[in-house]
Amino acid sequence: MKPVIALVGRPNVGKSTLFNRMTKSRDAIVADYAGLTRDRHYGDGRLGRREFIVIDTGGFEPTAETGIVREMARQTRQAVAEADVVIFVVDVRGGISAQDHDIARYLRQTGKPVLLAANKAEGMVGSAHLGEGHELGIGEPLPVSAAHGQGVRSLTELALETCFGSADESDEDEEAEAELLADGSADRPIRLAVAGRPNAGKSTLINTWLGEERLVAFDMPGTTRDAITVPFERNGQRFELIDTAGLRRKGKVFEAIEKFSVVKTLQAIADANVVLLLLDATQGVSDQDAHIAGYILDAGRAVVIAINKWDAVDAYQREQLQRQIEQRLAFLRFAPVLQISALKRQGLGPVWKAISEAWSSATRKLSTPILTRLLHEAVEHQQPKREGAFRPKLRYAHQGGQNPPIIVIHGSSTEHVTDSYKRYLEGRFRAHFKLEGTPLRIELRSGR
Ligand code: GDP
Ligand code: GDP
């Protein structure tokens, strides 16, 4: 499971700037999708092959008891509770304040591993302010400059080592990935997460599924950290259902737990091969739905959208819903949308079909000669735009990964290929290979 890093500190010390640095690579991929909400406080980061989740928190004043400050403090407490390691950010330019001492005291009480990031330290190494940081009792202040990117990498490395020791998992990961590429979807269970906001009907749906005779559930919950999976079989296909945010298994049934946890959702999404995004027809498409959808896209997971409680809405509402999905979830246009009623057991068959198809799209083998031929045809039909002196040349393509499928295109001046041209290529590849229910990544490489 991905480790979770929480960024904590008083307002204006540079948490958001640091957050953007740590999650940058991922955001770049999805920057250009219409409708994708950007005001996120949870992000995926990657260092080498190691992936992690970063939580950015609002301003934090643990002693204040009123209004927005209190609310932010509450959120921060939750973030700290969910984190494996906390990065406490202070501003060495502004100096250490009484508030910083309050936060430090709170963090020491939590017993969580904490790293002290002395931010805005560009050109200030060895300064008196860094020394001041020692007084917080958090350990050695680590000079960083979030704005200039200095020290961020070693800070992140240290945070990850704090979570899991410095053991190098990278070889193992690479082997696992190579293996996945080698035997595709063959006999592996499909890891399935049902995600959606509280009350969307997740536990109703899952219990309906697990109650069906045709679906054989095995009673052996896994035990990795606090993730629990339920293996089962349906139509000869093996699945592993992942406990998701707001859901816990109690004996034989799933129950909604009270608190919705974004981190648990992110971890379940990261852990899944296919995500069933459950919307609540009676509530429309909310910000929270759009956020979850954004995380699914970021993570590159295959996805099927099911609008639940279809039984409870009238024709007008149904039409509204379709429109909302088209607008607010435009970036998941590739995902099939189904209407169901978990309660009345309607429309559930097609969900299984859509899940299997999404998985098979996500793991499809794309042959190099066909990819290259499609690339040439696409370029012939419409050339990439010239930018200044450069006209990108696209020469050949091959598959670089599965779940999500990655198509690597080699050529020259590829950095001048526009996002809209990439989407044009994506559309052509998608149409040919009938890739539905999975994101598709296009990576461009120049040289060689
Ligand atoms: P937050 O309220 O803790 O999320 O802080 P922000 O990330 O919004 O940053 C507050 C201000 O500090 C902004 O004006 C940033 O540009 C600035 N800032 C952030 N990091 C650095 C840094 O490393 N050096 C300097 N000089 N300024 C920074
Ligand atoms: P969860 O928080 O996502 O696990 O949601 P629950 O499964 O606990 O469902 C929340 C509420 O919605 C419960 O009162 C369910 O009975 C109701 N519900 C779930 N599915 C449906 C459905 O298909 N139609 C209607 N009308 N109600 C539903």
From TrEMBL:
InterPro entries: G_ENGA, GTP-bd, GTPase_Der, KH_dom-like, KH_dom-like_a/b, P-loop_NTPase, Small_GTP-bd. Keywords: GTP-binding, Nucleotide-binding, Repeat, Ribosome biogenesis. NCBIfam families: GTPase_EngA (TIGR03594), small_GTP (TIGR00231). GTPase that plays an essential role in the late steps of ribosome biogenesis. Signal peptide: none annotated. GO terms for biological process: ribosome biogenesis. It comes from the Bacteria. This is GTPase Der. CDD domains: EngA1 (cd01894), EngA2 (cd01895). Residues 3-167, 190-363 form the EngA-type G domain. Belongs to the TRAFAC class TrmE-Era-EngA-EngB-Septin-like GTPase superfamily. EngA (Der) GTPase family. The keyword Transcription regulation does not apply. One of its GO terms (molecular function) is GTP binding. HAMAP family: GTPase_Der. Associates with the 50S ribosomal subunit. GTP 1 binds at residues 9-16, 56-60, 119-122. It comes from Aquariibacter albus.
